[in-house]
Design goal:
Length: 630
């Protein structure tokens, strides 16, 4: 049986004392209380049988057997007791109770002791703390890994520039005297900046693993409390702990929780968060120099950090860890594929090509979903089909197999997606088709998935083709059904957003010149826009956006009218098979018959194979026709 800790015994003992003290002051009998005048009336009537007198308290019994208690205005004297005895009443006179001078203060002391015992117990066990100190509320919540993490740079992929930048920190931690002898000052702080899931914490652990030094990790929210001064005390305790373990690394995750710009409190006042930030600034670059403590922090909101936190001497290095390129994605996939049985048909390079924008957490989730799918279907190895389905799950959500569509909805969805696919296939600057499906997934009844490449510079011609592809679904509906539906809502949002940014941000409209009418601040958690133009300019921009979209709609409509037979073939094939791979789509466009479904491995290889694009016929739509070329 597990023994109770000492502090629990103290609390139980205090509760027993309180119960005992309360019991001393309460009557032990269940007798009813009579008024003294009523008691005298009972004596005159001869209904009282016996009495027990103690001072002014009288406990008695009536002849009918009921008990009572009453209190005289003053202690009962001997003459009165003898008079009652002469009436035939049995009278017992007890000595008066002795006054205890400590009884009045015993109960408050016991209550106070119990409160302190409870506070002691909960303060020691607050957030799982196990310190021997009575009060550790101001102690840091950091977790100390006294042994260096086993993760090294070999376990980090897709961040080669970041690893090269951080290798200098590793060299300093291994041999700090070499830098001190040269009079060099190593950066005190390194800020890792990147989108969620990009591996900021992972690479910080790899730095500690490479340098073989202790790793002290904390979260920015650990320093924020409702009590003034607690956060600053925890920062001091954190750095004192780090100095005892030096050389070491302090890693503060989500530092924006405590490092926001000062002056944002109510009235610019002395709030707790600002005190914590001030203490952090002092600890990072105060009066002590040449310490072997490196502070690393991670955030996805560098735009809101206090400028004093980013100056030289504190976080004087910012290391961006962005979404990896295709080579980095392949390396990340290979790392996360360790220990997972892969089938012979699996090509991680092809998976990397079809997952642009995925960060390390997304790729790890993709492989995990593929492993779950393979296990659910009873296979011993992960196939390419599992990876393809997992990629769709991560990007679009799970398939809604229980959703039943009527024939009209299926036909509308098939022609809608076929319109997107043909526009992407024939327009030379659009992304090629990877897959088309009319299987509902997430909130979509179907989708055309393009094979996007990692592009840093988007040309005007490519943007115009992207707008035309987005409008291809609505154009196909109008051509085939002579009616339109609500299915193009998201397509219009994408097309409008691209057209507006072409005009207001990227200077791609001759009527507006090279002026930034709208400034967009991009952050890792989304962007926000600042409008810098008049109402008249806003009206002209709205007209230009509408004109640009109308021109691209007519452009894609003309293309689909020109290839209406191809549109019919693609929609019919979608209704028969529900999903077309890139290879199957090209065969349908070229009028070739589709083969019977191939073996699973071969089918998935064809699904990810790069398919050359078909150029439009001479005299057809031109990419630069939207705004008269430019």
């Amino acid at each position: 049986m597990r023994r109770l800790p000492l502090n629990l015994w103290i609390i139980l003992f205090g509760a027993i004392l309180i119960a005992w003290a309360i019991s001393l002051g309460s009557p032990q009998s269940t007798s009813k209380t009579l008024k003294y005048s009523t008691f005298l009336s009972e004596i005159q009537a001869g209904r009282v049988q016996e009495l027990s007198i103690q001072g002014s308290q009288i406990i008695g019994r009536l002849k009918d057997g009921s008990e009572f208690v009453t209190y005289a205005p003053s202690p009962i004297d001997t003459a009165t007791a003898e008079a009652w005895h002469n009436r035939g009443i049995t009278v017992e006179v007890l000595p008066p109770p002795r006054d205890n001078p400590y009884a009045s203060i015993l109960l408050p002391l016991v209550v106070i002791a119990l409160v302190f015992a409870a506070f002691w117990y909960f303060s020691r066990n607050y957030r799982g703390g196990s310190s021997d100190n009575t009060f550790n509320f101001t102690k840091s919540r950091a977790r100390i890994l006294a042994e260096a993490p086993k993760v090294t740079f070999k376990d980090v992929a897709g961040a080669e520039e970041a690893k090269e930048e951080l290798s200098e920190i590793v060299e300093f931690l291994k041999n700090p005297n070499r830098f001190f002898e040269m009079g060099a000052r190593i950066p005190r702080g390194v800020l890792l900046v990147g989108p969620p899931g990009s591996g900021k914490t992972h690479i910080a652990r790899a730095v500690a693993g490479e340098a073989r030094v202790p790793f002290i990790t904390a979260s920015g929210s650990d320093f924020v409390e409702m009590f003034v001064g607690v956060g600053a005390a925890r920062v001091r305790d954190l750095f004192e702990t780090a100095k005892r373990h030096a050389p070491c690394i302090i890693f503060i995750d989500e530092i924006d929780a405590v490092g926001r710009k000062r002056g944002s409190g109510i009235g610019g006042g002395n709030d707790e968060r600002e005190q914590t930030l001030n203490q952090l600034l002092v600890e990072m670059d105060g009066f002590e120099k040449d310490t072997s403590v490196i502070v690393m922090a991670a955030t996805n909101r560098p735009d809101i950090l206090d400028p004093a936190l980013l100056r030289p001497g504190r976080f004087d290095r910012q290391v961006p860890i962005d979404a990896p390129d295709v080579k980095g994605r392949e390396q990340i996939l290979r790392i996360h594929a360790r220990g997972k049985p892969l089938a012979e048909d699996v090509d991680l390079a092809l998976v990397a090509k079809r997952t642009p924008g995925f960060v390390g957490a997304d790729l790890e989730n993709l492989l995990n979903e593929a492993a779950l799918l393979a296990a659910r279907e009873g296979r011993k190895k992960i196939t390419m089909k599992d990876l393809d389905e997992a990629a769709d799950r991560v990007a679009m959500g799970p398939a809604r197999k229980s959703m039943v569509l009527n024939e009209r909805d299926k036909r509308i969805t098939a022609y809608h997606e076929a319109g997107h696919a043909l526009a992407a296939h024939f327009f030379p600057y659009a992304d090629p088709v990877h897959k088309i499906t009319i299987v509902p997934r997430g909130r979509a009844l179907g989708f055309m998935m393009p094979r996007r490449e990692d592009v840093l510079h988007w040309s005007r011609k490519r943007l115009l083709d992207q707008i035309a592809v987005a409008l291809g679904g609505r154009a196909a509906e109008e051509i085939v059904f002579d009616d339109v539906t609500t299915g193009a809502e998201n397509d219009f949002r994408q097309a409008t957003a691209l057209a507006r940014r072409m005009i207001t941000e990227w200077g791609m409209h001759p009527a507006f010149g090279y002026v930034a009418y709208q400034i967009r601040e991009d952050t890792y958690l989304g962007g926000y826009e600042t409008r810098q133009y008049s109402e008249e300019t806003a009206r002209r921009i709205d007209e230009a956006v509408k004109q640009l979209i109308d021109e691209q709609y007519e452009r894609v409509r003309s293309l689909l009218l020109e290839h209406k037979e191809v549109l019919e073939r693609v929609a019919t094939a979608l209704l028969e098979r529900e999903t077309l791979t890139a290879e199957e789509f090209v065969r349908v466009v070229e009028g070739q018959p589709l083969e019977a479904p191939a073996l699973e491995n071969e089918e998935e290889r064809q699904a990810l194979r790069v398919v050359p694009k078909v150029k439009p016929k001479p005299g057809g739509s031109t990419p630069g026709g939207a705004l008269g070329g430019a």
